[in-house]
Amino acid sequence: MVLVLGGVVAVIYLLFFLLKKSAKKRFSDNEFIEIIGSKDLSGGKALHLVKVGESIFLIGSADNSINLVSQITEKESLDSLKLDISQKTQGNRKSFQNALSDIFRKRTDTDPLVNSAHFIKKQRERLHKLK
């Protein structure tokens, strides 16, 4: 009975492995097209922010259709979205050791004024890098 159970678990694991491998072949990553974010709505509908090159589009999808809702052209919105994207990619590059040290290190800055000034300075530097 234990051998049969082990065999069933092995078959299920192999099936998931093969499905995962075939999904990667169908949807290869493209450096020019990137899904920035998605928000599921009711009834199988969703909104997606998609970056294509330097343009950002808001796309609506339903069960049977995909529609362009808007192209984001406002300079402030584009800068804000690009800043969020750069923060996400920088956050993803952290190593496991850095993440652990961030969690367990003691906070020495207790003055909120110092923290907010430092935050604003970093945001200004990031915006200058995007230009």
Output the keywords.
four-stranded antiparallel β-sheet; alpha+beta; 2 domains; single chain; flat; 131 residues
Helix-strand blueprint:
Elements: H1 2-26, E1 33-40, E2 46-52, E3 55-61, E4 66-72, H2 75-92, H3 96-104, H4 112-130
Antiparallel strand pairs: 1-2, 2-3, 3-4
Description:
The protein has 131 residues and is α+β, with helices and mostly antiparallel strands. It folds into two domains: 1-29; 31-130, no CATH class. 54% of the residues lie in helices and 22% in strands. It has four helices and four strands, in the order αββββααα. The protein has a four-stranded antiparallel sheet. It is flat and about 65 Å long. The chain starts with a helix and ends with a helix. The mean pLDDT is 79.
Q: Strand order of the main beta sheet, please? A: 1-2-3-4
**Would you report the number of β strands?**
4
Low-pLDDT windows of residues = none
Count of alpha and pi helical runs: 4
Mean pLDDT: 79
Strand content: 15-25%
Overview in brief:
The chain has 131 residues and is of the alpha+beta class. The chain is 54% helix and 22% strand.
